[in-house]
Amino acid sequence: MDKKYKLILVEDDSSLGYLLSEYLGMKNFNVVWAKTAEEAIVKTKSNAFDLAILDVMLPDMDGFELSQKIKGINPELPFLFLTARSLKIDVLKGFSLGAVDYLKKPIDEEELVVRINALLSRLSTSEEEEEHASEYYMGDYTLNMDNFELRYKNELIKLTGKEFDLLALLAKNQNQLCTHKEILTTIWDKNDYFNKKSLNVFVSHLRKHLAKDKRLSIVNVNRRGFMLRVEE
Amino acid sequence: MDKKYKLILVEDDSSLGYLLSEYLGMKNFNVVWAKTAEEAIVKTKSNAFDLAILDVMLPDMDGFELSQKIKGINPELPFLFLTARSLKIDVLKGFSLGAVDYLKKPIDEEELVVRINALLSRLSTSEEEEEHASEYYMGDYTLNMDNFELRYKNELIKLTGKEFDLLALLAKNQNQLCTHKEILTTIWDKNDYFNKKSLNVFVSHLRKHLAKDKRLSIVNVNRRGFMLRVEE
DNA sequence: AATCCTATTAATCTTTCATTAACCTTTTTG
DNA sequence: CAAAAAGGTTAATGAAAGATTAATAGGATT
Question: What ranges are recorded for DNA binding (chains A, B) (predicted)?
């Protein structure tokens, strides 16, 4: 049996939203429907979606802005934009090569399913490729991977080697849980009681370093691991 | 595998900045996104960019003014301006000291990639002269690669062979980390404990030589390497 | 061969940083 | 709800890395 993919549909129009979620449900997708951007953000935090379908015109926020925030929560999520405007299409068409696509309204449901599957299949094939970003952004902080520098609004913050390694791992997976095992095996090479104690110390240090931006927090998930949370 | 070019995109508009950096990332560019001119200046100091894409209208500074400042930091950097205004070519003529191009908004991303590649290819043909830069400038010091001379405001400072090699490497990568491995393999050919000890001695010598300009410092990044930092 | 120059090695001192310990707070479990 | 486990924070410690100066050795030059 195929994996049942979980989608979030962000659409303020009730009729269209209902119609699409029903239709996609019939097509064996697990659909969560959010009517506002705010709702979408909350839902993204508490669900592991495989794909997001966003109306670009929402009552409370621009769809692109929303996509950015969602990406902050779940960086791997592919997007499918629903747009009535033809204006932005020239901006979006370039994305048809990557994990972003768009559809013009009115929506053709069959076409929608084709696009969804295209995005999902692309995701699974490119899962292996490692991303080597040279900078990670977290709120007003920037972590530069080339010179091992952390900056808060251009102010340099000195990090030790292990502090940097840990923050880099958390930043790479921001808003996603890093398990104890994952952290300890990548940074300490060994997953034992004493290294776990050491990890706690470093988490504490990093919290101090990141204290200047209230939107950032390193949260503990009891018995599982840590997560760098970046709030919108 | 092709070299991954590193670009800085200076764009205050969140939606456009996000879309472009995502798109260029997909096109296998390493993109660093700055939202303000000030941010751009800091990032230019701490990254070795191959190209800069500047919005001409920024909240804190005019894009052309910014380009001049960036040019002061990285003189070889080619520019690509994004402009809403229909600019006449003669305005850009003043900038044709280096590789410069411009694109009108709204941006056609495919066109953007074509222009970027055009600028970069122009760069690579003249890469020969970049590698053989005859002088490096660090604060009030000048390192002449042709006659192996270091000068502080015209005052000649005598360097030994290894001192020169090391300073040249650091100067070429100023404000960027040079790892122990990088230094030892390029200057000593072998990366072992004793050469590392020797490196420390030379760093100490160079610090004395560079002491006359307080803005210069050779900083150590524990267990990673050294960096020639040039302030302001 | 004596002198000069320079890179390496040695010796010594200082700094840095990961670990450990100690103690406190929060969460989980029985 | 009490005991136990896990997590949080700060400080002490010691080993490793780095900085600096001096000594040595080896090659080149005269």
Answer: 133-230
10-residue mean pLDDT profile of chain A (232 residues): values are 81 90 90 92 85 84 77 78 57 45 73 81 54 83 93 94 97 91 93 94 98 96 94 78
Closest CA to the C1' of C26: that residue is A222
pLDDT score recorded for residue A88: 44
**Which chain A residue is nearest to residue B110, measuring alpha carbons?**
A94
Domain that holds residue A175: 135-230
Q: Report the range of poorest mean pLDDT among B116-120, B160-164, B193-197.
A: B116-120
CATH number for the domain spanning B171: value is: 1.10.10.10
Query: Does A147 share its domain with A86?
Result: no
Q: How big is chain B by its Cα radius of gyration, in Å?
A: 20
Whether A1 maps to a domain, the answer reads no
Q: Give the residue with greater pLDDT, B95 vs B75.
A: B75
- Phi–psi pair at A98, nearest 5 degrees: -110, -155
A63, containing H or E segment: helix A63-73
Contact (Cβ atoms closer than 8 angstroms) between residue A218 and residue A211? no
Of the partner residues B38, B109, B222, the one whose CB lies closest to the CB of residue A94: B109
| Nearest alpha-carbon partner for B185 in B159, B171, B163, B165 | B165
A10 with A98, same domain: the answer is yes
Pairwise CB contact (< 8 Å): B42 & A98 = no
- Residues of chain B neighbouring A161 (CB-CB closer than 8 A): 222-224
End position of a domain, from candidates A62, A95, A125: A125
Q: Are A158 and A100 in a shared domain?
A: no
Split at pLDDT 50, 70, 90, the class of B87 is low
The reply to whether B223 has its C-beta less than 7 Å from any atom of strand D is yes
Total of domains in chain B: 2
Whether A25 and A117 map to the same domain: the answer is yes
From A188, A187, A170, select the one nearest A225 (Cα to Cα).
Answer: A170
Give the CATH number of the domain where residue A91 resides.
3.40.50.2300
Rounded Cα distance between B137 and B135, Å, is 7
Q: Is A151 an 8 Å CB contact of chain B? A: yes
- Percent of the residues in chain B that have a pLDDT greater than 70, as a whole number: 87
Residues 55-84 of chain B with CB under 8 A from chain A are none
- Residue B1 resides in a domain: no
